Amino acid sequence: MKNNFSLVSGAAGFLGGHFCEAFLNNKFNLIMVDKKYDKLIKIKKILEKKYPERKILALKLDIANEKQIVNCFNNLKKKNFFVNVLVNNAAIDAKPNNAKAKGKYINLQQWEKEIKVGLTGTYLMIKTFGEEMSRKKTGSIVNIGSDLSVISPDQKIYKKSFKNYYKPASYSTIKHGLVGMTKYFSTLFASSNVRCNLLSPGPVFHKQPKDLKNHLLSRTPMGRLCLPKDLTGTLIFLSNKDSKFVTGQNILIDGGKTII
Can you list the alpha helix ranges (DSSP code H) found in the chain? Predict the structure, then answer.
């Protein structure tokens, strides 16, 4: 329908941009939300040139702020815009770095900041937009997870490239937490014909140092890292009616990494 939209949070990020283009390429209208509004506008201008026939909105939004989410929802509703696909992609990525040793434990302030975006923000988006889907008895929610939603990080793989780095406990906690949240809302909304699934990539190829990349390749049966295009087909499948009987699933796209 012309006033139905897919909404992607964290749209200014690396994967977010690919997800946005995949929706447009498959004839969805699009709402992009992110705190990084300047970057979002640049992406919007590029996409508008490529997909002039599609409706594209770019909105500044902090998904950890419930008031902002409710205001965003109300403004869209006033325009008779309905979000029938919600992609919860926003997160604070725990990227390796060569900073001075920080120890095994992030401080409480950083822990709370990451949890507030990765878990609380996802919950608030589902609470607001998912409830409207439930009222209208249609919709799909896709949360973005990780292979670390089912396994623990192997800290040894970072030592050669990033001697002082530990993958923080917050990241695993968030991704494992999304499994439970996905299952919870999949059953809560099931009778309303609203689906909720988790899409969990393995390591995605994106500027990894050679040593880290080689470690990851050695642990992946298919012998390569995940590419954004490996994810978008499943994302579109979970977003359209072809997957109308798929809900509560954690779909791992990792080249077999988590099965050995």
Answer: 14-25, 37-50, 66-78, 108-115, 122-125, 131-136, 169-188, 210-218, 228-239
pLDDT for 161: 78
Residue 33's H or E segment, with its range, is strand 29-34
Instruction: Give the chain's end-to-end CA distance (angstroms, integer).
Output: 43
Q: What is the distance between the alpha carbons of residues 47 and 114, in angstroms, rounded to a whole number?
A: 29
Q: Give yes or no for a contact between 226 and 205, defined as CB atoms under 8 angstroms apart.
A: yes
Lookup: tokens for 138: 């249609």
Following DSSP, what letter does each residue of 174-222 receive, concatenated? HHHHHHHHHHHHHHHSGGGTEEEEEEEE-PBPSS--HHHHHHHHHT-TT
Q: Which of 158, 155, 141 has the alpha carbon at shortest distance from 99?
A: 158
d(CA 25, CA 162) in angstroms, rounded, equals 38
Tokens of 17: 């941009």
Largest CA distance in the chain: 54
Cα 250 off chain centre by:
13
What number is the average pLDDT over the span 146-173? 91
- How far, in whole angstroms, is CA 196 from its chain's centroid? 13
CB 98 within 8 A of CB 163: yes
CATH classification code of 4-259: 3.40.50.720
User: What is the reported pTM?
Assistant: 0.96
The pLDDT of residue 99 is 55
Can you tell me whether residue 213 is helix, strand or coil?
helix
Q: pLDDT band at 252, cuts 50/70/90?
A: very high
Tell whether the model's pLDDT for residue 71 goes beyond 90: yes
102/85 Cα distance (integer angstroms): 39
pLDDT at residue 238, as a whole number: 98
